[in-house]
Design goal:
- With 825 residues, this protein is mainly beta.
- The protein has 7 helices and 45 strands.
- It has a 10-stranded mixed sheet, sandwiched between helices.
- A hairpin with a 4-residue loop joins strand 14 and strand 15.
- The longest helix has 18 residues.
- The protein is globular and about 90 Å long.
Length: 825
């Protein structure tokens, strides 16, 4: 409804208040921040003078629409805020005054003495129109506001006050104290930076009529799975504390603090203390970082000209150069007007063109840097329908600015064998002429090669990444058919073409002597060779029963189709995501449904495929003579490769559980387990450990960990709030994830679940006119996020295939440095 009160009165009030606040120091800098002594006519409950005097004051308003004595919660809250004002360094102390007399909001001189106002009220219509106009003018003049718990019920008919607190409670939340887990997502705001990642505490938990996230900056969320939220529950994204710069001032609200015991908690007082330090202008904080309107997504490339890939090929990966250029590759699919050759008798079967494009921020133009003739133009496969080979990955040398070296992961058409339906995958180094943005295609140095079957689609993988030691990680798919196992384990030993199995991932991902279905780690040398770093999963010298052996390049085994990987160079932690099988539902006979997976990998490990998935959920074994009959369940702690197609070790490393997995039914599905640890796999008994995501048609796309650089002069870099957060996404944009998650470093390497997650779908926009089919995302040196949209078809590029950039435009922390107050000294 419209704001109440006379607009003429409000304007004159605001002008007077602004002048008064400047005189009193509310809008002044450190040199003029002193406050006059309190007026004794102000009705107060207590006046506290911190040691050393007080230059900063906080008003606690506890007036209520209901008659009667003040609540014990009010008394506990006032006492806690007084205690906070007395504690901490002298320069962060403040004086506290409390009142239930709303006339203070129409007394310009009295209100102008306070840096911040705390609403510790039981709610209701507590201000008349003139009093609310006074509060509005106070905020316009740069004041601070802290709302606690039932403050969200105050002024129920005021749209302006709704904006001030951020949200209104919904009916139906149980009015009882429950212990719950609060996910503390903002690790920098003074109200949350010192709190536990997972904060377990009792309180009365409010539900919201409308989720304010995106309109406010949410600093903490309550995990609904840890308590009974009742009717009106908000779901996986349930904000509990947030802040925003509002109407000229600063507003902080917490839904916590509904119990007397809250104010005895050290952590809750620390939470309030940080909120008060920011709202009183004693410290700066960023309350803009997750507000949707502070981001801009722009398409950088145009649609291709007819019959040409002048702007973009079939998008399949990108990397950013130190000077801001973006290199992105096309896998090999041709324009839809081009013929697709599927006849194995034709020498050009599956021939395609892998392309490397460069977008230059200085010119905002695209250059076609080079082309490779690849096997990968929607030809081949056991049904001669599709193939996922081609140009699969790109990386720039760590010393790219000096040497211009570009590494490409691809399948050369010249190396296919049309008789055996085999091909060669390779990683090669090329040199770029940096003046022309053209690759010297004759400069190729082949580092690594290995065989892949191309009789049957699919799973090529392709991503690459560097660590700080100059080690190159290479993600390879399991090179296995999606058929013949009903969408479950992918372990059918029977089908083969000329002796090479194409439906048994134990030949590839589960094989210690095969480079497919792995994440490899090598150290490229200047002469175009490579060495093996210490700490890989095998040395390459192991032998065992039956003469089995290993490959020393393997860092991680047991992955299915890892299209994207990334390394956080500040920690050298590897992050990966891979696409799961096709089963739409769990089976008590065969095992879990399709699980797409994300993992934090801190050491060489076996991630399970095709024996186990998710948090070590096993599949059922099958073997000759009849692969249709189930055998025993795999042992995730002691897996054995007993496939007739295995030429590696039989006894495999134990499986490490993964951090994020999701199926069409939901995120992190799990089941009751029997005495042997085998899940029931009954959908009716399932429960979900990660309720913030679900799948459907799904294809995991790992993203980067953002690292904020305070020395970066870019005005569009993403803010420090995102520092250390891991971006996980899916090719599709429906119910699938596009989230920033926060991991616990103590548990992440052993499959620990994320401790916090928030959706990015309003920042990295979804929908047909947005980034609908996410195919890769990286942060550039300017701190902006660069994203590839695959387009709307498959195995080709179309008018929606594009490179995008998402920039931040919200500005820095508030208040401005010149407006900081000076506390007790």
């Amino acid at each position: 409804m419209p704001l109440r009160g006379s607009s003429a009165r409000r304007k004159s009030w605001a002008a007077f208040a602004t002048a008064g606040f400047v005189a009193a120091g509310l809008l002044s800098g450190p040199a003029a921040s002193a406050r006059p002594a309190p007026d004794p006519s102000l009705t107060t409950m207590s006046i506290t003078s911190p040691p050393g005097g007080a230059n900063v004051r906080v008003l606690v308003f506890y007036g209520s629409a209901a008659s009667g004595d003040e609540s014990p919660v009010v008394n506990a809250g006032i006492a806690a805020i007084e205690r906070i004002g007395l504690s901490g360094p002298a320069k962060e102390r403040f004086q506290v005054e409390a009142t239930d007399d709303a006339s203070v909001f129409t007394n310009e001189r009295k209100l102008g003495r306070f840096n911040a106002i705390v609403f510790l009220t039981g709610g209701g219509d507590v201000l008349d129109p003139e009093q609310e106009a006074g509060l509005e003018a106070y905020m316009e003049a740069g004041g601070g506001f802290v709302g606690i718990h039932d403050a969200a019920r105050a002024e129920p008919y005021s749209d302006w006050f709704t904006g001030l607190v951020g949200a209104r409670p919904a009916a139906g939340a149980p009015a009882k104290v429950q212990r719950a887990t609060v996910e503390v997502g903002d690790r920098r705001h003074p109200a949350t930076k010192d709190l536990p990642l997972e904060w377990k505490r009792p309180d009365e938990w409010l539900n919201w009529q409308k989720n304010p996230s995106g309109d406010v900056h949410t600093v903490a969320r309550v995990r609904e799975s840890t308590y009974a939220p009742g009717a009106g529950a908000n779901g996986a994204d349930h904000p509990v504390s947030w802040c925003r710069d509002y109407d000229g001032g600063r507003s902080f609200y917490t839904g916590m603090g509904g119990t007397v015991s809250s104010y005895d908690e050290t952590d809750f007082r620390a939470h309030l203390r940080g909120a008060l330090l920011w709202t009183t202008r004693l410290v700066q904080a960023d309350c803009k970082a997750t507000i949707t309107g502070n981001y801009r997504a722009e398409r950088l490339t145009q649609a291709n000209q007819p019959g040409r890939n002048d702007q973009i090929g079939e998008p399949h990966g990108l990397v950013t150069a130190p000077d801001g250029r973006v290199f992105y590759i096309g896998r090999g699919g041709a324009d839809s007007s081009q013929p697709v050759i599927t006849d194995w008798n034709n020498p050009d079967v599956g021939k395609g063109t892998g392309q490397i494009h460069v977008w230059d921020p200085k010119t905002e133009k695209v250059t076609l840097a080079g082309e490779l003739t690849v096997f990968g133009n929607k030809g081949g496969g056991d049904e001669l329908v599709k193939v996922e080979e081609g140009l699969l990955g790109i990386e720039l040398d760590p010393r790219f600015e000096e040497n211009g070296w570009v590494y490409l992961h691809y399948t050369p058409h010249s190396r296919i064998n049309r008789d055996t339906h085999m091909a060669e995958r390779r990683v090669s180094r090329f040199t770029l002429d940096r003046a022309t943005n053209k690759l010297d295609m004759g400069s190729e140095k082949v580092l690594l090669t290995w065989p892949v079957q191309i009789h049957s689609c699919c799973h090529a993988g392709g991503g690459m990444a560097w660590d700080s030691e100059g080690n190159l990680y290479i993600a390879t798919g399991d090179n296995n058919s999606s058929q013949f196992s009903d969408g479950y384990s992918g372990n059918n030993p029977q089908p083969n073409f000329k002796g090479v199995s194409f439906a048994d991932a134990r030949r590839t991902a589960g094989n210690t002597n095969n480079l497919n279905g792995k994440i490899l780690r090598i150290h490229p040398e200047p002469d175009g060779t490579y060495t093996l770093p210490e700490g890989n999963l095998f040395t390459g010298k192991e032998t065992a029963e039956g003469g089995g052996k290993t490959r020393g390049e393997i860092y991680v085994m047991g992955v299915r189709n890892p299209a994207r990987i990334s390394v956080d160079k500040s920690t050298d932690t590897l992050y990966a995501g891979w696409v799961g099988p096709d089963a739409g539902a769990p089976s008590p006979t065969w095992g879990p449904a399709k699980y797409d997976t994300f993992a934090v990998i801190t050491k060489a490990s076996n991630r399970g495929w095709p024996y186990c998935m998710g948090n070590k959920q096993p599949y059922r074994d099958r073997n000759l003579p009849d692969p249709s009959k189930p055998l025993g369940w795999y042992d995730c702690d002691h897996p054995k490769n007993e496939s007739p197609n295995n030429d590696g070790l039989v006894n495999l490393p134990p499986v490490t559980g993964n951090n994020i997995w999701y199926s069409p039914q939901g995120g992190g599905p799990d089941f009751p387990r029997d005495a042997n640890g085998i899940p029931s796999y009954k959908e009716s008994e399932s429960f979900y450990r990660l309720p913030w995501l679900k799948g459907g048609g799904q294809a995991a796309m790992d993203g980067p960990v953002y690292r904020y650089d305070a020395t970066n002069a870019s005005e569009t870099k993403w803010p420090a709030y995102w520092d250390g957060k891991w971006f996980v996404g899916d090719f599709y944009d429906a119910d699938q994830p596009r989230n920033a998650v926060l991991m616990d470093p103590k548990t992440q390497g052993d499959g620990g679940l994320p401790v916090h997650s928030e959706s990015l779908k309003k920042i990295v926009p979804v929908g047909n006119d947005g980034i609908k089919n996410l195919m890769g995302w990286k942060f550039g040196p300017d701190g902006a996020l660069y994203v590839l949209d695959y387009g709307r078809g498959f195995f080709t590029s179309d008018s929606k295939s594009a490179l995008w950039r998402v920039t931040y435009k919200g500005g820095g922390p508030t208040p401005a440095a010149a407006q900081l107050a000076r506390g007790s000294e």
